[in-house]
């Protein structure tokens, strides 16, 4: 099996089985899966009922390509990587799968993918509440995040 790296940003429903099929291989004994979902947290008397995602799609695709290359460099045994992310109004957000001959590499690689997606890929999330209010959320992992500023940068 040749290594593959399908990536996708879509407003359509994402099929976890389709993504699993994309990474399945007779040479791989492990498929690590991450599925992002909507937490129905309650904050200030409001319950999160869904998320809305937007992206700078061209740049996001470019960053996905860089991320997959980084994963392959760090874990040469990773055989297949499949990254799908929903845009627009979503409940289940993103299925990611990575396959490798052994579970350790695919588990570490999936964690790196998640961390790097939050830090580098231009996808933005808005929480929508049961009160019909909403608010944009930033990832603390982003270098530009106000939640990521060190005390040394404060004046």
Automatic annotation (TrEMBL):
Instruction: Tell me what this protein is called.
Output: Molybdenum cofactor synthesis 2
- Species in which this protein is naturally found: Sparus aurata
Record SUPFAM superfamilies:
Molybdopterin synthase subunit MoaE
Q: Which domain of life is it from?
A: Eukaryota
Identify the Pfam families for this entry: MoaE
> What are the GO BP annotations of this UniProt entry?
Mo-molybdopterin cofactor biosynthetic process
């Amino acid at each position: 099996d040749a290594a593959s790296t399908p990536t996708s940003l879509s407003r359509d429903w994402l099929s976890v089985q389709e993504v699993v099929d994309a990474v399945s291989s007779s040479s791989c004994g492990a498929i690590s899966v991450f599925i992002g979902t909507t937490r129905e947290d309650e904050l200030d008397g409001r319950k999160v009922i869904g998320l809305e995602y937007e992206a700078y799609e061209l740049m996001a695709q470019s960053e996905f390509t860089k991320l997959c290359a980084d994963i392959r460099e760090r874990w040469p045994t990773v055989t297949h990587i499949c990254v799908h992310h929903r845009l627009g109004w979503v409940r289940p957000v993103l299925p990611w799968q990575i396959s490798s001959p052994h579970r350790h590499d695919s588990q570490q690689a999936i964690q790196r993918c998640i961390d790097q997606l939050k830090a580098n890929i231009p996808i933005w999330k808005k929480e929508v509440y049961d009160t019909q209010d909403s608010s944009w959320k930033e990832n603390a992992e982003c270098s530009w995040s106000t939640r990521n500023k060190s005390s040394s940068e404060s004046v």
